[in-house]
Design brief:
about 250 residues, Double Stranded RNA Binding Domain, 3 strands, mainly alpha, 3-stranded antiparallel beta sheet
Amino acid sequence: LYRPLLPKTEQQQLMCDQHEEEKINIYCLTCETPTCSMCKVFGAHKDCDVAPLPDIYKRQKTELSDAIAILVAGNDGTQALISQMEDICRTVKENGHRQMQYISDKFDEIYAILEERKRELIETVGREQDQKLGHVRSLIRRHGDHLEISIKLVETAIQSMEEPQIAVFLQNAKEVFKKITDTAKASNIERTEAGYESMAHFIINTEDVADMLRSINFQTGEDGEDSDDEAPEDLTPSPGQTGESGRRL
């Protein structure tokens, strides 16, 4: 058995537990423990291989120093890797935000095209609606004017029927007959054709476009290379350099 190593000022007094008068001065290689000469000659380590304590001290101190250097180097490498991963995280977030904005802009362009086309088609329907309304209202005015003339003619004809004098009646009847004939002919003025009021011919088929919009996806391979769209470039660090920090690994 041995006592723990003490600072250099106290190492000279380190004594063996089994032989209190003997100093710890050798190292048992078999048991890997410091001991004294008496333990080697007569004690528990008499069949073991031993070496001078200072030699083992120097060797193990060198080995420990080398191990510490290796561990420190490993720690430096690990810290560098962590820094690289942190830079990659930042770059991934930046690239992700750039691509999200790019996609948002592309869909905004589609929305703008759809809104513009919707406005144009609605205006087309509105123009034909106004045209038809204008035409029908013009016919209404013409028929109204004809009806007003016809009503007045009826009143005139009734008054003519009440004429008591035969000669006067016959004299006026010719003119009334002529007006009735002319008015009857004028009653065949323009009419709207059947189904004129329908607007059902303004039909659009959006199924194909809807299917195409639903199939919008990211382009890969050669399709992506042939695209005219200019997607934002990734902020990819050059080899051996991390993202924004510029630290060399």
